[in-house]
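Homework-ish question, so no full write-ups if that breaks the rules, but can someone show me the predicted structure for this set?
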Amino acid sequence: MTPPLGLVAAGAVLLVAVVLIVAALVVYLVSVIVALAKITRGLDEVIAGVSGIVEKSAPVNAIVTAINGQLDAGVDALEGLLVKKAGLTDAVGLIDGLYPGAAAYGLRNVPDSTTITAPRISEVYTKGTLTLARLGREAPIAAANPAGPILRNVQGGSLAARRLYPEIRQSRPERLPRSPVIGADAPVQYEQRDDIGAPRRRLPRRGAGASNGAPPADRTP
Amino acid sequence: MTLWWIGDIVLIAVVAPVVAFLLHRVLTAARSIVPSVQSIAATAAAGSRDLDAAALLLTTRDQATQTIAGVADYGGSLDVILDDAAGAGT
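A: Not a homework solution, just the prediction itself:
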């Protein structure tokens, strides 16, 4: 007994549909497996890198703590020495002179140092300025208002100190005449003198050296 | 036989598209993770290389210790040489 043709067709369609679904499953699942394999390899690299970071950064905390401890001890010792030798007020003034505005932070071991008004004891002048001041010539040390800012700009370099002197070359060097060019290809050539390097033509007088007690010069033939 | 045909139609029109859609979404998600993992791996490797100099902190610690010791000796000498400020230490 053969099944009806409609039943055979329905079975064939069912079989084709199942095959198509299984084929789609295979294609997609294989692609997913390949992607997951790439992810696994990437995660292995991540784990290796992170492990290296963990190993290399493990001693950092202890070392930095030790360095900070050493530096704290040094700062404490130097601050204590400065306060002991210069006094608290002058110490704050010196620190504020070297690092403008640092007086507001005070000394670490002296909390009351933040309330001290830093004295202006830290202007730094060049040796030439002090020499001019002693000579009473053009040194503006006393010209500025003592209540004003310090004359030396710590962060501005040496131009502030050079401006204490008469204006010659410190701020407008481009206006100075250029240095002369020398050499064989110089724009201005000078005639070579024959007497340079040649024997002396006239001898000194004979009696001039003898009257001073010097021995007479040898006569050249 | 009618029910069989209805099953075939449901299988082709509903089940197969749903399976294909879900598999496509899974594949897209898996492929999108790959570049992220690769970039994380490159970043971790670079971070590990950046920390190669961390071993030099041992030298830094030793040199800081020696420097502070020298400063302490220098400060001790200054303490002996220089007079104390007026009123200090009293």
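Now go work out the reasoning yourself. Hint: Confidence is low (pLDDT under 50) at residues 213-221 of chain A.
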